Amino acid sequence: VMDIARKTSIERSLSCEEAFHPAPAAPPPAAATAAATTTTTTHTPATSTTATPHTTSTPTAASATSTATSHSEGSHQQTMCSTHVLVPCLRAAELLFLGSSAGDVVLADRDWLPSIELAQRYAHETGATVPTHSLFDLLPDLRGNGEAMSHRNPATSILMDDLEADVNSKVKRAFCAPGSTHNPVFALLKLVFETMPRDWHFVVPRKPKDGGDVTFASVAETEAAYLAETLHPADLKAAVSAALNNILQPFRDEIKANKDLVKLAAVVKKLKI
After folding, report:
1. CA-to-CA separations, 224 to 122, 176, 211, 235, 273, in angstroms, rounded
2. DSSP for residue 105
3. How far is Cα 175 from Cα 166, in angstroms, rounded to an integer?
4. Which secondary-structure segment (H or E) carries 6?
5. Can you state the percent helix, strand and coil of the chain, rounding each to 5?
6. How far apart, in whole angstroms, are the C-alpha atoms of residue 18 and residue 16?
7. What is d(CA 193, CA 175) in angstroms, rounded to the nearest whole number?
8. What are the backbone angles phi and psi of residue 109, rounded to the nearest 5°?
9. Burial (Cβ within 10 Å: 0-12, 13-18, ≥19) of residue 194
10. Buried b vs exposed e over 138-176: b needs ≥16 C-beta within 10 Å?
11. Using a CB cutoff of 8 Å and minimum separation of 24, what contacts does 199-202 make?
12. Within the chain, how many helices (H) and strands (E) appear?
């Protein structure tokens, strides 16, 4: 694994050697340490018994070590966690395993790009097969905190096996400030438009007193209405939830009809990652 990693640019060309620092030097032998202790000489002038003694000190090994440590702490050191090296290698191994089956297509987020490049280089050198890949951007966390959705935060992420009520509750609590389209709800809406057929229209049900139902043919039209404040956040969220549930329903039906998938889903939910 390390040999492959050294040959490939991983995580913006960070080399494996940067991930590890040389081991600290071994402490000096006990005899040398004792000899390096501070030597103090007291000079008392003969003409005065009340003169203050004058002390001279030689630098000790401890003081030299302290200075070196302070200098080291003051300088900038670049460190990297071992996972930055191991994770791309493990992902690359997974891609190479999938490549053994002809016709496989891997759908992955853009964080996988270093792993894909690693697998492609390994395949070029060894004659292995890498599956076709399609990359996508990660959806933002529903809290609007700048993070991406993750299975580690299921309460603020949309999962494929979420029930209809779960999706409705999560989207309802999602961050969606008026006057701005840079929020998780519009990110979900863009995903919906990308998933649906080209002639699909986004319908927002509303009460007659609120202007009745309104239909949008694109994300841009929806954004314009939202910025003009003719579309309320609550109505937008309800319509996005309905569209997401329509997309997820076939997956729910497939999981429900397959006993193995039901068991697997139960096991995955119990995992603490």
Report:
1. 48, 15, 17, 15, 40
2. E
3. 16
4. helix 2-7
5. 50, 10, 40
6. 5
7. 20
8. -80, 170
9. exposed
10. ebbbbebeeeebeeeeeebbbbebbeeebbbebbeebbb
11. 202/239, 202/243
12. 10, 6
Q: How far is CA 202 from CA 160, 170, 238, 249, in A?
A: 21, 20, 12, 18
Tokens found for residue 71: 């200098």
Per-residue pLDDT tens digits of the chain, which is 273 residues long: 445 544 544 443 443 334 334 444 455 554 444 444 444 444 444 443 334 444 444 444 444 333 333 344 444 455 667 777 888 888 888 888 887 665 567 878 888 888 889 998 998 899 888 888 888 788 999 999 989 998 788 899 998 889 999 999 999 999 999 989 999 999 999 999 999 999 999 999 999 999 999 999 999 999 999 999 999 999 999 999 999 999 999 989 988 888 888 888 788 777 765
**Rounded to a whole number, what is the distance in angstroms from the first to the last CA of the chain?**
23
- Phi and psi for 184 in degrees, rounded to 5? -60, -30
Q: Nearest Cα to 219, choosing from 243, 236, 202?
A: 202
- Residue in the block written with tokens 């690359």: 92
